[in-house]
Design a protein that fits this description.
Blueprint lengths: L2 E5 L5 E6 L5 E8 L13 H8 L9 H9 L4 E6 L4 E8 L3 H13 L5 H19 L2 H13 L13 H6 L2 H11 L5 E7 L3 H13 L20 E6 L4 E9 L7 H12 L6 H9 L6 E7 L4 E9 L4 H17 L4 H18 L3 H15 L5 H9 L3 H11 L6 E7 L1
Parallel strand pairs: 2-6, 7-11
Antiparallel strand pairs: 1-2, 3-5, 3-6, 4-5, 8-10, 8-11, 9-10
Helix pairs in contact: 3-8, 9-15, 10-11, 11-15, 12-14
Length: 409
């Protein structure tokens, strides 16, 4: 399927793929701004902005924003990560124009009404309390803080009670004015619509946006020190999080680590960690490892919960599986099966057109292009057992891992 990309004179880019065997269109703005781009005093501001985009524009109140697509059976949504803010929608193809116009309005014309800030402040404080009451979420956030100590990548996307409690209308305007860069902003569309119709619905308004270049430069992280920490919590089972920095978005080894992570503790039930800790020993209900690349560094982590009496055994088994991958080269059949599994998962993910729309936007932002999936498949197919073992010896080195454990009081 053909991919269309157009860059406007102000630097904003539009990426589109037509898919004729669906009734829907998925579209969204992806901005290269995230929680890591906040100062310590601004912690939580990007996520608060995501909330406030739905609370009023120059021509719409909250009800009109929320009702515009929902009343037509569409969906409007947004999310914030450490490096991106996204506003996106899914709707029947005949309502694409309404979706595009609404997304443009909330992205560029939000007014951040003071009364709505006060209301939403309470909503976010409740969201924080909910996460604090969820040890599974809390341990992941705290592991980030330990791995990326004293750096914006380690801070909670939600912010703190102190920062969120103090934000004013001007803070939002100031943050957007210093961080927004029209050359780092994508409008992405995937669905049953031609490129001409996409442009007809959005090119005019987008062309009116004045070109803007941000002088802001992200601060890198290069001061990792492995740590070990155990704390008692009001929980019924022990939780363990293990992590460390990993490869960035631009590292040629990133797809190899993706494959390695998939073998160790990816989403499939036949991952080595799941087979060993759940299926063989029954120590966990679930265990997963993850690899998340950022623009200048990455993160590798493992999470699981188990009974207090089996905690040490479970931790030992995790390290044993990592050691096996570092010390024993995969056999030809094992490697082939692992590659086919990873490629199959990626191919299935491509069938999710809403997610694909976001992937295209992020890829264009991060790499200046959208790699055909076949190119990624080829990188995975060309990975050797020796390369995987070498990466395992680096990333799975136990002396470089940070350990965080929550135990029952």
């Amino acid at each position: 399927m053909e991919l269309n990309i157009k860059e406007l004179s102000n630097g904003i880019r539009i990426v589109h793929q037509e898919v004729t065997h669906t009734r829907l269109v998925h579209c969204g703005f992806i901005l290269d701004i995230g929680s890591r781009d906040e100062t310590k005093e601004q912690e939580g501001l990007a996520h608060f902005w995501e909330h406030m985009a739905f609370k009023g524009t120059k021509k719409r109140k909250t009800f009109h924003i929320l009702n515009r697509l929902e009343s037509l059976g569409g969906e409007l949504n947004a999310y914030t990560t450490k490096e991106k803010v996204c506003f996106y929608a899914s709707t029947l193809k005949e309502h694409y124009g309404k979706a595009a116009e609404l997304l443009f309005d909330i992205t560029f014309n939000s007014t951040f009404p003071e009364k709505q800030i006060e209301k939403e402040r309470q909503v976010i404080l409740e969201e924080m309390a909910m996460y604090r009451d969820s040890p599974d979420d809390a341990i992941q956030d705290e592991l980030d803080e330990m791995v990326f100590e004293n750096h914006a990548l380690g801070r909670n996307i939600l912010g703190t009670e102190q920062t969120v409690g103090g934000f004013t209308q001007q803070d939002f305007f100031d943050y957007i004015s210093t961080r927004l860069d029209t050359s780092r902003l994508i409008f992405s569309v995937v669905g049953n619509i031609s490129f001409q119709k996409v442009l007809r619905g959005i090119e005019g308004p987008l062309s009116q946006i004045q070109p803007k270049r941000s002088l802001y430069v992200r601060s890198g992280f290069n001061s990792y020190v492995p740590k070990i920490k155990t704390q008692e919590r009001d929980i019924s089972q022990s939780l363990c999080a293990i992590g460390r920095p990993a490869f960035s978005l631009y590292d040629p080894n990133r797809f190899k680590l993706y494959l390695l992570n998939n073998i160790l503790g990816g989403p499939s039930m036949n991952s080595r960690l799941n087979l060993m800790l759940r299926e063989k020993h029954g120590y966990v209900y679930s265990i997963e490892s993850s690899y998340q690349p950022f623009s200048d560094i990455g993160f590798f982590g493992i999470y699981f919960g188990t009974e207090g009496k089996t905690l040490k055994k479970a931790q030992s088994l995790v390290l044993k599986e990592m050691s096996k991958m570092a010390n024993t080269k995969l056999g030809t059949v094992q490697l082939h099966m692992a590659k086919e599994q990873a490629i199959g998962q990626m191919a299935m993910a491509e069938e999710n057109y809403a997610a694909l729309m976001l992937v295209y936007g992020k890829s264009l932002l991060d790499h200046g292009k959208v790699d055909p999936l076949e190119n990624i498949f080829n990188q995975i197919r060309n990975t050797t057992a020796e390369e995987l073992q070498e990466i395992a010896q680096d990333i799975f080195n136990p002396d470089m891992l940070t350990f965080l454990t929550y135990t029952p009081q």
